[in-house]
Amino acid sequence: MSAVSTSPVIERGTPASRISAIAVVVIIVLLADAPQFLSAGAVDRMTALFIYVILAAMWNALAGFGGLVSVGQQVFFGLGAYFAIRLADAGLNPFASLFVSAIIVGAISWPMSLFMLRLRNGEFAIGMWVIAALTHLLVNLDRLVQGETGTSLISLNVYDAGARRATIYWLALAAMTALLAILFGLLRGSTGAAIRAIRDNEDAAASVGVRVTGTKRLLFVLAAFGIGIAGALWLATSITFQPKTYFNVQWTAYMIFMVLVGGIGTFEGAILGALLFFLIETWFGGTGVWYLIGLGATAVLFSLFLPRGLWGTLEERFGLRLLPVGYRVRLPANATDSDTVPTSQQATAHREKA
Amino acid sequence: MSNQIVQGILLGGYYALIACGLSFMFSVMRIINLAHGSLAVFSAYALWWLASRFHISPFVGLLIVLPLMAAIGWALQRFLLERSARGGALLPILTTFGLAIVIDNALFEQFGADTRSLAPYIGSLSYDSWEWPGSIYVGKLAVIMFAAAVTLLGGLQLFLTRTRLGRSIRATSEDPDTAGLVGVDARRANALAAAIAMVTVGLAGAFLGMRATFDPYTGAPQLLFAFEAAVIGGAGSLWGTLLGGIVLALAQTLGAQVHPQGFLIGGHVAFLIVLFIRLSTSGLGLRGLLRLPARKTT
Fold it and tell me: Using CB atoms, which residue from B32, B91, B108 is nearest to A289?
């Protein structure tokens, strides 16, 4: 054996991940063409799916990678819709207002983060919920919203229904792709290493010079921005804005369900969770209360018995990695000291994960 | 104005009642139970069911519901929290949040969307009042509620400092491993603490039902009130909880004066202001002042 093969190899991808990279491009191209072939109802459902993927990925960025569990992310969902209404009312093009609104939400989340990120764990979780409740009450005071009666994104009505549906579909697809790409780039770059160090041990990360607060703030603002877009897009698909619907804690419940089932702290897991949630909603959404009880119970069971979620468990068992954001150390299998390398260490190396 | 202040202080008694279980569980197990409010509403429904179905007065019904809540607390700790706490500090938040969703929607499934109240089952107590000097009218129920809060907090305080079980709970909350070395069964102490916390939740639920109406989704606001009162008072401090409850209630009263929809806004804003002061003085502000010395000295 040559000397080269005895040293460990740092891998940033696997054959499977190279295939999946091509598959991702193919899927996005297919999805972009889809509205030509799908019925109006199916296009709307697909738009909802894209919004779910955004919500799951953003909540996962915050909780899974930043270690910040928030129960108040509906605040950004509601604000995204609210500012879109406000901007459209002020005369801005309704489609443009969806994205300007998200930028405003991101900008607001910055000063909020200065304050909220000093809270720990459960305090942060419920503290965000208080912020959401307060914001809901304040939005209700706006004369334009008319309290719980709500209002509508009327200016969208000038567009033909078919063109409007397709445009919102493409905007949602583009937003989802862009946000996932930003998150992927962030996690794969040097910030990603900092993020994972913080997630695993905050104090240790700080002691080796990782900028803990700055990194968390980045994730907080990104999540606020992404969820703001999701809220604005949801408004565009449903037209009506009722504060009670948008500032409802159920949005965060959905995010938690998707991420917990898919796999908290794994990039692919959030997407898988959103897909599963979408299917469950399609099949069982009509059963009303029992559907919600089922969601809650599933979340409890996963947190107790499968806290790594479906993808996290698969990844651990099979070393599977489709969209790798981390580094993996592979020890050469036929190295001279291969007999002395305990299998557990191999497994540890594999778990050096996304 | 003095009338409203008195009413606000008495309402603070209710917030202290609902907050003390949350604060107690946090100080012992370092867990914030997000199903806290939903469990209080569950208790209110249990009392309502006993009263409407079997004509059992809510006060007598407590004899059935409080032991049930203790059993629920014990089971909650043993089967859910203990397991999820092993997965880190974040997992219990998700577990208890999932549990809250299950409880809320199960109550909805069972009892429907109608708002209920225990007021019709407690006779004239729901509207009787005493006249205090200065023509201040205080509801008998509000006074009973406040007295119950003071009694409960005092009782808990005595229990924690004077009894063997109480000391074992405090020892576990300080350092479970060392407590184990000197023969304290940490699992038992935690389960017991959860049971006690749920008894206070059951009592808070009873007063919630008597003083107001409730529906299956009333749990979330109760959780927020409890959390706000506990944080304003300094998390983990029993008497601080009472002060926190009073501050919260007074802020809500003030908010309602400023704007017709300002009741809840006032409370939330007061909470954020206190939090801001506390954080900007890095924990040495109100929290340090209100912190119960007993946990450090004895």
Answer: B108
